[in-house]
């Protein structure tokens, strides 16, 4: 009896020990299926997407209208409700790159000039827009680290110990390219304002703590001078010192290397706001108290009024009036059936086809054999190999295979050497293929990104595939 009781106790303890192990294993397996790509999708709750910031803005002001722009921006801004709005309206884009047509940029400039606001948070911006705003061409500069600190220049928004962010993938710190603006862009016009900056942030050891205390007064003087030069005097204060919570972490800040990541550009009666780190607005950072506070203070620059959320410009637009909407392509049959004459013609065709199948479906004579020519099956072989790589989730090799085929196409069709990808190569490829130079630069940049990574995500593979197919379709 005692032996059986002892056995039951051991079994019970074993089951209780397996429960936390099972929970840990479940959480681990769940984490392995999370997509950590920066895709900025509104409906996705994955870490680096826009689900939370979309709903934050949507519910921020219940009495104001929140409009999702899923059509051409020129059509939306031309509506009478937008033109005759009593309060300033805010246009918002959060993503990797805004694919704006030239007509859309002109409409957006007129929209802001009349007293409205445009807010962009993106890794890169259209060169056409920057040129028209007299900001010249962009230079890609970045801080490469997993840990970064950000702050504001406005005294009402400054966090005493900075907003510290750690970039992670699968809960492990990973270095990230934290891009920032070239200071030359801001020196051309006095109406341009620096609103925020970033710098490296590292944890201090004891020696760093002692050294930081000795230099504290000098660093504070440097920070005050930076704030006096770039502080926005016209901003309506919304935060007080009581809103700012001190961090328990002890960090060492490189305040000698403040890099501008948030600017304001005055245009007519309105303002353009540009932020270089859209990843800070994603779900991963918004679930953190520090990240939510930073995003709320950044978006507090938006005026009281309706909000236009640009969802359409996340995707490439072909030409004016002809573009594809993801998951919203209208069926040609729907238009045919909406027109009575075309609908009757369609029904007549179906009836005729049915009668032909019934009365002429039986063969009248022996089939004449067709002698087919020998075909080159190298393309089919390549597709088979590609499918094999895809099924094995070897995205790196599959993307490299597509890139090799793409470069072979360029060598064969345009007789160009693909060994050296320089400025002359980009220019000649754009002229010979009649493809927009900006799209070629984006494609070649993604190709370099694939070659420089050990692993390639499925999202990046799909992006490379779509860009190459777009090149094949529209090149001459």
Number of discrete helical segments = 18
* Helix vs. strand class: alpha/beta
The major pleated sheet works out as:
10 strands, mixed
**Which percent bin holds the helix content?**
40-55%
Percent of residues in β-strands:
5-15%
How large, in whole angstroms, is the Cα Rg? 29 Å
Low-confidence stretches: 205-249, 319-329
Distance between termini? 89 Å
Overall shape: it is: globular
Average pLDDT, rounded to a whole number, is: 78
Count of strand segments = 14
Describe the structure.
The protein has 476 residues and is an alpha/beta fold. It has helices at 2-32, 51-58, 73-77, 80-83, 102-113, 127-132, 184-187, 206-214, 216-230, 283-286, 289-299, 332-338, 340-360, 378-391, 395-414, 423-433, 437-451, 458-474; strands at residues 66-69, 90-94, 117-121, 141-145, 147-152, 163-166, 168-169, 172-173, 176-180, 193-203, 251-253, 259-267, 270-275, 307-310. Strands 1, 2, 3, 5, 6, 10, 11, 12, 13 and 14 form a ten-stranded mixed sheet that branches.
Describe the SSE topology.
Elements: H1 2-32, H2 51-58, E1 66-69, H3 73-77, H4 80-83, E2 90-94, H5 102-113, E3 117-121, H6 127-132, E4 141-145, E5 147-152, E6 163-166, E7 168-169, E8 172-173, E9 176-180, H7 184-187, E10 193-203, H8 206-214, H9 216-230, E11 251-253, E12 259-267, E13 270-275, H10 283-286, H11 289-299, E14 307-310, H12 332-338, H13 340-360, H14 378-391, H15 395-414, H16 423-433, H17 437-451, H18 458-474
Parallel strand pairs: 1-14, 2-3, 2-14, 3-13
Antiparallel strand pairs: 4-9, 5-6, 5-10, 7-8, 10-11, 10-12, 12-13
Helix pairs in contact: 14-15, 15-18, 17-18
